[in-house]
């Protein structure tokens, strides 16, 4: 009798432990669902928010270094279905470099709130990254320090890093940098632009700006470039990632020092929906939004005086549709949320916000024109002696879009065997618990149009 009670007590303990393992919450990762990212800028101060610098104002003016500001932005992004911020980053230097110090704060807050973050290594404006050696040192720092943080963005189990203006260096130079910093390709590097030769070194491609002057068919553009990445994979037997871009509009007409500026109307959210639909139709591995808060070029979706929460509302709808792999849907246009009382007097409503922040004692070199297809993220000035620059790119002719054949999604795992009516052994119970755990963990969805990785 005592032996039987002892056996039953042991069974109860094992079952309880197995249950606790099964129901333990698991941190969300970018590969759980189709990831939605957004470019994020950390260099604003309160002196930025005036009518002569931006055509619209944030609903709540802010300083990027304020922890409460970063917390609010992370909460807003999470509620809108954004999985990670991609932060324009000048390098690991701390002095006079908000992009590093604010990124550190962002990682800690992101960990607390369930977001992820990565860097967009800015080779077009950083005052610290002058040589290939500087770049190697910066990337080594990212991989050995930032990428070890629990909130650093990972995709397919690897740290994922974006690059801006990698064209500063030749493919051969990048080969040498990669061989020195990450010879085994234990991280994923995403290049920007239309030069596919960089895929010999980088692991994927994105276009920062798909809203051009003169206007082009964004569906045609994204379909074409997604197709070109897949063609590259088929030819080379690789698995390079295609990161498609969604953006709400464009307006850099208040950006200082630019020889050519232009404005693409937001159409009260219709254009943003159009770019989302085009991005999804291009069968991407990931979607990135340009941008969460790039006010200089008017691409922000952050709540504003003119639009309230309209663009976060649309983001939530489109991100959910993308992650569920649903077909095109028609939603009612969200109503712009009332503006908080703390908002300064707004300038005349303009469809897209824009204007570079002017942090403390910053020197801004003149813009440099480039031959890249996309326009540069607003290289907003860094506070305290951090020079910046901007450049806008003209699009190249776009050939006919390719045909994209979606791959099937992963099949559900079989259910575990039924338990017998007698109390199984501890080992059997643990095995059953692990089986249930495997079934409860969401499978990474298949990504359409991918080839096998080398």
Features:
single chain, 454 residues, alpha/beta, TIM Barrel, 2 domains, globular, disordered C terminus
Brief synopsis:
The protein is α/β, with parallel strands linked by helices. The protein is 30% helix and 11% strand. It has helices at 2-23, 67-79, 98-113, 132-144, 171-181, 218-236, 270-281, 310-324, 426-440; strands at residues 36-40, 84-89, 116-122, 154-155, 158-164, 188-192, 204-206, 241-246, 250-251, 263-264, 286-289.
Structural commentary:
It is a single chain. With 454 residues, this protein is of the alpha/beta class. It has two domains: 2-19 and 415-440, no CATH class; 36-324, Glycosidases (TIM Barrel, Alpha-Beta Barrel). 30% of the residues lie in helices and 11% in strands. It is built from nine helices and eleven strands. Strand 1 (36-40), helix 2 and strand 2 (84-89) form a beta-alpha-beta unit. The chain is globular.
Tally of structural domains:
2
Overall average residue pLDDT: 77
What's the CATH class of the largest domain, please? Alpha Beta
Strand arrangement across the biggest beta sheet: 1-2-3-5-6-7-8-11
Q: Main sheet?
A: 8 strands, parallel, barrel
Question: Low-confidence runs (pLDDT<50, min 5 residues)?
Answer: 14-31, 327-454
